[in-house]
Amino acid sequence: MEMSLPPKYDYEEPRPSRVPLINLAARLVTFASLAITMVVLQTNRATVTTIKGDKFRLTYGNYFHTYKYMFYVSTVGIVYTALQVPFAAFYVIVKRRVFSSDTLLRIEFYCDKFVTLLLGAGVGAAFGATRDLKEYTLNKESSSMHYFDMNFIAATFILLGCLGSTISSIFSSWAFPTGE
Predict the structure, then answer these.
(1) Which ranges of the chain does DSSP label H, i.e. alpha helix?
(2) For this UniProt entry, what is the primary localization, expressed as one broad class (predicted)?
(3) 32-72 residue pLDDT tens
(4) Domain range for residue 173?
(5) Which tens digit of pLDDT belongs to each residue from 132-169?
(6) At 96, is the secondary structure helix, strand, or coil?
């Protein structure tokens, strides 16, 4: 009795999902943009002279609570993202999650939402305060204008980090009901 070969079928391998790769890219963009935000805030300084002739130094933490808030929110976001990047990379490489527990998916779901909301609040506070402070600066040619311009740059990068975090949050929402 001869063995016959199975019939040939036109079978195509299923295309791999790009969701894990997009999620990893979003987390890396979040990490990088929040790191840039922190660097800009820490290196941005200006010496300002008052009307009385007194000089003082502007930094992110000495006079404006909004910039302190933006720095601390960026710190929370970068720490959380640094914790999530290895898990996202594992998901890209192995095509499955490290932990498939319902409890851990819930934690990721809620933490993604929390961090995204914090970053969004930091974005709003940074853009609002910087715009208002620039508007009421008396000397438009002073070093304080450069200081506020640099804070606009920091606010733009925290906005980019918030968008990356939003994308990651959407993917964690999709994974939550299905357990993927």
Answers:
(1) 19-43, 65-94, 102-135, 143-178
(2) membrane
(3) 999 999 999 999 888 777 777 777 777 777 778 899 999 99
(4) 32-47+60-89+115-180
(5) 888 877 667 677 788 888 999 999 999 999 999 999 99
(6) coil
In a domain, 121, yes or no: yes
DSSP letters of 19-69? Answer: HHHHHHHHHHHHHHHHHHHHHHHHH--EEEE-TTS-EEEE-TTTS-HHHHH
The tokens describing 100, both together, are: 């498939």
Measured CA to CA, the distance from residue 48 to residue 160 in angstroms comes to 30
If one counts the domains in the chain, the total is: 1
- The reply to whether 129 falls in a domain is yes
Question: 75 pLDDT exceeds 80?
Answer: yes
